[in-house]
Write a structure and sequence with these properties.
The longest helix is centred in the N-terminal third of the chain and has 30 residues. The protein has 13 helices and no strands. It has one domain. By secondary structure, it is mainly alpha-helical. Helix 1 packs across helix 11 and helix 11 runs antiparallel to helix 12.
């Protein structure tokens, strides 16, 4: 069953990559690189390329939910990192971009850091178990605080926020969503005839709210940065958050973990995050935008 879950997660990663690519190009053409608003969302709904991306993302989500319900979180979540490679190649070919050395190194740091973190995490976690009601409630309370904090920040400071804020925010939210989706999926599979009376509705509502806000953040990230940067952030931050919740709240970490291994896991996580930050600064698309902004600033200063 684990190998079927891995195959589903792999297919989901490809759906995520191409869905992100389609939606990114549609957002840039419809929103013009500006913040995504309700008016722009209306335009996007009529855009065939954006809707194709939405369908692919939806299919990827279904495959990922199946995988999460069929295998441990630490096995399924990291597989999404494959989407980064696919998105980078597709985006570079479509826009005829030549990847500079910092970009290649940043992508390598993302992949190596996240893969190393996950491989070590798998080796130090115990057998998977069903999430208890108290653990689920604690996750929901923390998620509510996270939603409030980043939601208020986005509401009051949205004009000053760049792609990295929306990417990190979406990654954190989707990390919580993955944990709760797995919990809900396992509960639903074991409900039998007691479906309606036993569905964890609060967890389901938390998934919907966090999922919608995370999706809104992703759309804004598309309008402010290249799709491979968005995918890099999500495929690094999402699994790290999910595994961190599994270790600290769900008690998946074995008590006999060596201190050096714990330090190595932390360093691997830092390497992956550094890769995302470096990608946000050195990607060719980002550098091109900065050059155009400096040029416009120079022209405006000459005019005055």
């Amino acid at each position: 069953m684990v190998w079927i879950a891995i195959a589903a997660a792999l297919c989901g990663a490809f759906c995520l990559a191409f869905g992100a690519h389609f939606q990114s190009s549609a957002v840039k053409s419809a929103a013009g690189g500006l913040d995504v608003t309700l008016g722009n969302i209306g335009k996007l709904m009529g855009n065939g390329r954006w809707m194709s991306g939405l369908l692919l993302l939806g299919l990827g989500m279904v495959l990922n939910v199946f995988a999460l319900a069929s295998a441990p979180l630490t096995v399924v979540q990291p597989i999404g990192a494959i989407a980064l490679v696919v998105t980078t190649v597709v985006n570079a070919r479509e826009h005829k971009l030549t990847m500079n050395l910092p970009t290649v190194l940043a992508i390598a740091a993302c992949m190596v850091g996240s893969a190393t973190f996950v491989l070590m995490a798998i080796n130090v976690t115990g057998d998977q178990h069903q999430v208890s009601n108290s653990e689920e409630l604690l996750i929901e309370v923390i998620l509510a605080c996270v939603i409030a904090m980043i939601g208020i920040t986005a509401l009051f400071f949205h004009r000053k926020l760049g792609a990295i804020f929306y990417i990190v925010g979406a990654g954190v939210l989707f990390g919580f969503v993955a944990v709760l989706v797995r919990s809900v999926a396992i509960d639903v599979l074991h409900l039998g005839s007691q479906f309606w009376s036993s569905v964890p509705w609060l967890a389901l509502a938390a998934v919907v709210v966090a999922g919608l806000l995370g999706s809104y953040f992703v759309q804004n990230a598309y309008s402010k940065g290249p799709p491979d940067l968005v995918i890099a952030g999500l495929t690094v931050i999402d699994p790290i958050v999910g595994i961190a919740i599994g270790i600290t709240i769900l008690g998946e970490l074995r008590p006999d973990v060596p201190a050096m291994l714990a330090v190595a896991m932390a360093l691997a996580g830092v390497l992956a995050i550094v890769g995302v930050v470096a990608l946000s600064r050195h990607h060719p698309v980002v550098l091109d935008r900065k050059a155009k902004a400096r040029h416009l600033k120079t022209l405006s200063s000459h005019d005055t």
